[in-house]
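Appendix B. One record, verbatim.
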Amino acid sequence: MVWPVFILPRQPNAKEKKHLGRMLVEKAAIPLVLAVDGSGRVIAWNQSGEFTLPDQAVDIIGRDHPYGQAVTDDLINLCRHPDAGIFIISGWRLHAKPLSFPVERGSHGGPGRQETNAFALLPSSTTVMVEDNHNRDFLRIGDLRQAVIRFLKGSRSA
């Protein structure tokens, strides 16, 4: 099956956006649809209903997600990105196997526990500093990137 690309003739208003988001879930069987509403809030639709982020993130990613706040922040930032479309669609399903679309331009699997968990094998002498205001006990890929940049700058000056 080939998924068509729809180009809307104009930006939908908040009411139209809510209707389209709900229809993408109900009629097109998209497991998760996200969008920014007229007031700048992020709205998410799935088979359980309509939710706002960050307030109702547990209804999208689950209560026991080990990176719940970070994943919620990432979803919000993704929706608000200048290059994001009107809707962000995802195959993520909280209580079922994630769906993969037949024709994709990259796939991740969604914001689930397994999909957002990873590991890095680093020399024991490696120091990675977390440079943000979040008190967290995990690294993000940006932390590793910054560690490599600092390392390369240090090796050039030596």
